[in-house]
């Protein structure tokens, strides 16, 4: 036996030992989670098992403690899955998302809740809201804004008619690929299917590489991927999940025009989330259409030095002359300076609703 093989054997023995230790530690952690479930149930028979603020703290702590060689995001992803499995022991979490299967929203749901969550595709954003409101699922995941294409108006509008709360957010880097089935004649692609937003995000690449192909908009990227399965002259623009689900081949990868193309998704539910330490609050405010309205609304945030992270205006559907503002800002509603701002805004607004305070997305 050469020296290298002795080393390899030794290293593998060491890895076996470490794996046994990790196995025992994960099992011990899982038993703790089971005990946590008993404590929660003893305190309240309608106990809420999923705790977004605690999960954010666990992941942030792991990232801060990590010394490498794995990078902190990679390490947090591993712990994300351990926690997901532990939570499934307490109660399997059911999550509705904007489907069909294979969409970026499903990818976002799994990124946030981990692979042990049960994810259920819904046909429309309002259906996700309805399922959560009715208690048929614990949480929902809906897209809210894309770094290239802007806000998803439909999601914001649905909040106006709903009592749903925001419990979290997750940001996903969006990579689009040009995909074909194994029967596609790659030199003969004359039609490309995708969601209109994806076409918009890949416009320059398509103009340069497929200027003459017909661009056919469909309801989702996953639907596009499904369609090319049966057409030898078609391609689809979709993400990795859809490619995997329908067994498609990649003609070109990462064809999005903007290299940091990302989409933010909201986790919606029926619970108020306690402070995690690094939080965000989302509110919707209806203002009367008077001169200086926007200034009056924003001035308290400036005075209390609260960071606004997003401001969207939507027409109100109740009064012709009213505007509705969706505002996201850093901080939790239980922090005194945030509570003070909310009180002042309340006095100036026709209506104010706090959609939720929740941990800033960790992964
Ligand atoms: O701390 C809790 O409340 C737990 O239930 C434990 C745990 C974990 O595995 O760390 C599991 C699920 C919760 O969402 C948060 C954390």
From TrEMBL:
<comment type="pathway">
    <text>Metabolic intermediate biosynthesis; prephenate biosynthesis; prephenate from chorismate: step 1/1.</text>
</comment>
<feature type="domain" description="Prephenate dehydratase">
    <location>
        <begin position="94"/>
        <end position="270"/>
    </location>
</feature>
<dbReference type="InterPro" id="IPR036263">
    <property type="entry name" value="Chorismate_II_sf"/>
</dbReference>
<keyword id="KW-0413">Isomerase</keyword>
<protein>
    <recommendedName>
        <fullName>Bifunctional chorismate mutase/prephenate dehydratase</fullName>
        <ecNumber>4.2.1.51</ecNumber>
        <ecNumber>5.4.99.5</ecNumber>
    </recommendedName>
</protein>
<dbReference type="InterPro" id="IPR001086">
    <property type="entry name" value="Preph_deHydtase"/>
</dbReference>
<dbReference type="InterPro" id="IPR008242">
    <property type="entry name" value="Chor_mutase/pphenate_deHydtase"/>
</dbReference>
<keyword id="KW-0511">Multifunctional enzyme</keyword>
<dbReference type="Pfam" id="PF01817">
    <property type="entry name" value="CM_2"/>
</dbReference>
<feature type="domain" description="ACT">
    <location>
        <begin position="282"/>
        <end position="359"/>
    </location>
</feature>
<dbReference type="InterPro" id="IPR002701">
    <property type="entry name" value="CM_II_prokaryot"/>
</dbReference>
<keyword id="KW-0028">Amino-acid biosynthesis</keyword>
<keyword id="KW-0057">Aromatic amino acid biosynthesis</keyword>
<keyword id="KW-0456">Lyase</keyword>
<comment type="function">
    <text>Catalyzes the Claisen rearrangement of chorismate to prephenate and the decarboxylation/dehydration of prephenate to phenylpyruvate.</text>
</comment>
<keyword id="KW-0584">Phenylalanine biosynthesis</keyword>
<comment type="pathway">
    <text>Amino-acid biosynthesis; L-phenylalanine biosynthesis; phenylpyruvate from prephenate: step 1/1.</text>
</comment>
<feature type="domain" description="Chorismate mutase">
    <location>
        <begin position="2"/>
        <end position="94"/>
    </location>
</feature>
<keyword id="KW-0963">Cytoplasm</keyword>
<dbReference type="Pfam" id="PF01842">
    <property type="entry name" value="ACT"/>
</dbReference>
<dbReference type="InterPro" id="IPR036979">
    <property type="entry name" value="CM_dom_sf"/>
</dbReference>
<dbReference type="InterPro" id="IPR018528">
    <property type="entry name" value="Preph_deHydtase_CS"/>
</dbReference>
<feature type="coiled-coil region">
    <location>
        <begin position="1"/>
        <end position="28"/>
    </location>
</feature>
<dbReference type="GO" id="GO:0004664">
    <property type="term" value="F:prephenate dehydratase activity"/>
</dbReference>
<dbReference type="Pfam" id="PF00800">
    <property type="entry name" value="PDT"/>
</dbReference>
<dbReference type="InterPro" id="IPR002912">
    <property type="entry name" value="ACT_dom"/>
</dbReference>
<dbReference type="InterPro" id="IPR045865">
    <property type="entry name" value="ACT-like_dom_sf"/>
</dbReference>
<dbReference type="InterPro" id="IPR010957">
    <property type="entry name" value="G/b/e-P-prot_chorismate_mutase"/>
</dbReference>
<keyword id="KW-0175">Coiled coil</keyword>
């Amino acid at each position: 036996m050469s020296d290298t093989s002795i080393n390899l054997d030794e290293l593998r023995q060491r890895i076996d030992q470490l794996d046994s230790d990790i196995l025992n530690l994960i099992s011990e952690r899982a038993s703790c989670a089971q005990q946590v479930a008993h404590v929660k149930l003893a305190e309240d028979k309608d106990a809420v098992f999923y705790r977004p603020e605690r999960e954010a703290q666990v992941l942030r702590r792991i990232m801060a403690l990590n010394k490498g060689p794995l990078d902190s995001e990679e390490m947090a992803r591993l712990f994300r899955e351990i926690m997901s499995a532990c939570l499934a022991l307490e109660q399997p979490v059911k999550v509705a998302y904007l489907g069909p299967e294979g969409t970026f929203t499903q990818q976002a749901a799994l990124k946030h809740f981990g692979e042990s969550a049960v994810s259920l595709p819904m046909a429309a954003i309002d259906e996700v809201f309805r399922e959560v409101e009715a208690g048929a699922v614990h949480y929902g995941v809906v897209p809210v804004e894309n770094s290239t294409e802007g806000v998803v108006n439909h999601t914001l509008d649905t909040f106006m008619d709903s009592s749903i709360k925001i419990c979290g957010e997750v940001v996903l880097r969006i990579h689009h690929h040009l995909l074909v089935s194994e029967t596609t004649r790659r030199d003969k692609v004359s039609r490309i299917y995708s969601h209109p937003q994806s076409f918009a995000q890949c416009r320059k690449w398509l103009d340069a590489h497929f200027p003459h192909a017909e661009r056919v908009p469909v309801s989702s990227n996953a639907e596009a991927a499904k369609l090319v399965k049966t057409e030898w002259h078609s391609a689809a623009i979709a993400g990795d999940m859809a490619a995997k689900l329908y067994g498609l081949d990649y003609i070109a990868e990462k064809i999005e025009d903007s290299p940091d193309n990302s989409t933010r998704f909201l986790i919606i539910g029926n619970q108020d989330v306690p402070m995690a330490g690094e939080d965000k609050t989302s509110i919707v405010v209806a203002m009367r259409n008077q001169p200086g309205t926007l200034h009056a609304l924003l001035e308290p945030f400036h005075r209390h030095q609260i960071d606004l992270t997003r401001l969207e205006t939507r027409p109100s559907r109740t009064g012709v002359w009213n505007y509705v503002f969706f505002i996201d800002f850093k901080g939790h509603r239980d922090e005194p300076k945030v509570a003070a701002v909310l009180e002042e805004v309340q006095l100036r607004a026709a209506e104010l609703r706090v959609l939720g305070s929740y941990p800033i997305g960790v992964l």
